[in-house]
Design brief:
Elements (H helix, E strand, L loop, with lengths): L1 E2 L5 E2 L4 H14 L5 H13 L3 H6 L7 H15 L4 H5 L1 E4 L2 E4 L9 H16 L6 E5 L5 H9 L4 E6 L2 H13 L6 E5 L13 E6 L6 H5 L5 H6 L15 H7 L4 E10 L5 H10 L2 E8 L5 E8 L1
Parallel strand pairs: 5-6, 5-8, 6-7, 8-9
Antiparallel strand pairs: 1-2, 3-4, 9-11, 10-11
């Protein structure tokens, strides 16, 4: 307990009280999953697992911990993503370092990885050459490299800081020896190697201008995630379209193109596939039942 100058006793800032205070504040600010955000921030400050919070609910925070936490709460209340605040995000069963140089890995992108891996396992010969366009934190490249030990992966991005982040993640997760990182836009980095690829995958920016302007995009994304990782132009296809038009020249016959797309873009990308050099094109739904993953093969 603490005592004020007026001799009024106030309760200590225990884990229980801090979680309740943060949850209420974040709920008022309309944050998504306010209790989870509260747990992540407090566990980060206390340097413990979230479960430990509930094993020590009466633990009193130190003055230094309170100062650190209050700064993070202020930033979170302004809708700065909690993953940026704690510097990490979960993806496909492992943890990635993340920062504001790139997109925070999303659950829908796990469906992209799963689709690539399912295709790879069904191939008579294990794919060994895979390219990940717009790698960001390295999520897709690393997940594929971890699950396909015979494969080598090329990870590309236009943002050098994002590639540095991805390289750190690859090193920490033990796959840096099988991932090459190259700076460049879309298919440009593939021009340096004329050999055909088995898979070209990517989670490229696909938010349309209409979605950006009409309030469909969460505030945390609009204000804190780099536009270079999210905005895809008038119809959201400014980056997807040229990849679909030219990626076939980089793939072996029967090779796979796998791209994450927006739910409303299904018809447009299937039309693009019909107009270009793709066969067996289809769009699969993600875990939330949105159209999300374009799969097409070079004819």
């Amino acid at each position: 307990m603490t005592t004020t100058g007026a001799n009024v006793t106030t309760p200590p800032w225990t884990t229980r009280r801090l979680l309740a205070w943060m949850t209420e504040r974040f709920t008022t600010q309309s944050l998504s999953a306010p209790r989870v955000v509260s747990e992540l921030l407090l566990a980060h400050v206390l340097e413990c697992e979230r479960m430990r919070l509930y094993m020590e609910v009466d633990r009193e925070a130190t003055a230094e911990e309170l100062a650190r936490l209050r700064d993070l709460v202020r930033r979170a209340a302004a809708h700065e993503p909690v993953q940026y605040l704690v510097g990490r995000a979960a993806f496909f069963g492992f943890e990635l370092e993340v920062d504001a140089s790139s997109l925070i890995p999303q659950p829908a992108t796990e469906d992209l990885v799963s689709a690539v891996l399912a295709w790879a396992r069904a191939c008579p010969t294990t794919p060994t050459r895979i390219a990940d366009l717009g790698t960001g934190s390295g999520a897709v490249a690393i997940a594929i490299a971890r699950d396909l030990p015979e494969a080598t992966v090329l990870a590309t991005d236009v943002v050098p800081a994002a590639l540095e982040l991805a390289a750190r993640n690859a090193t920490r997760l033990g796959v840096a020896d099988r991932i090459e990182f190259r700076v460049g836009a879309l298919l440009e980095p593939l021009d340096a190697d004329p050999r055909p690829w088995d898979v070209i995958a990517g989670n490229l920016p696909y938010i349309s201008d209409t979605e950006w302007d009409d309030g469909s995009v969460e505030r945390c994304v609009r204000e804190h995630v780099p536009a270079s990782a999210t905005r895809g132009g008038t119809d959201g296809l400014d980056f997807i379209r040229p990849v679909m038009q030219h990626a076939a020249t980089h793939l072996r016959p029967g090779g796979l193109l796998a791209l994450e797309i927006g739910h409303a873009q299904r018809d447009a990308v299937l039309a693009l596939a019909r107009d270009t050099r793709w066969t067996d094109a289809r769009v699969e739904r993600d875990a939330e039942n949105f159209w999300r993953v374009l799969l097409a093969h070079r004819g």
